[in-house]
Amino acid sequence: MENTTVTTVTIELPTNLSKDEAQLLLAVKLFEVNKVSLGQAAKLAGFSKRAFMEFLGRYHIPVVNYSANELRDEIL
């Protein structure tokens, strides 16, 4: 999932949505759908990994998304 290349995108935002809010929302959604890693999402949002994880937790967005079998395999 790590990708070393980046693309710059220019978009028009509604006046009630700041650039920082848009970047945060994009980072959260890209992380949720497994398009970026936790570290990549945190960087996009302008957060440390820890702060991004705490933000996700406040909104009940799982940081780790294992199936029951994957979790069992990870623990054992």
Describe the structure concisely for a colleague.
The protein has 76 residues and is an all-alpha fold.
Folded structure, characterized:
With 76 residues, the protein is an all-alpha fold. The chain has one domain. Helix 1 runs antiparallel to helix 2 and helix 2 packs across helix 3. It is elongated and about 50 Å long.
Largest sheet: none
Q: Determine the number of helices (DSSP H or I, runs of at least 4 residues).
A: 4
What is the global morphology? elongated
Structural class: mainly alpha
Descriptive tags:
76 residues, mainly alpha, 4 helices, 53% helix, 0% strand
Helix-strand layout with pairing:
Layout (H helix, E strand, L loop, with lengths): L18 H14 L5 H8 L3 H10 L9 H8 L1
Helix pairs in contact: 1-2, 2-3
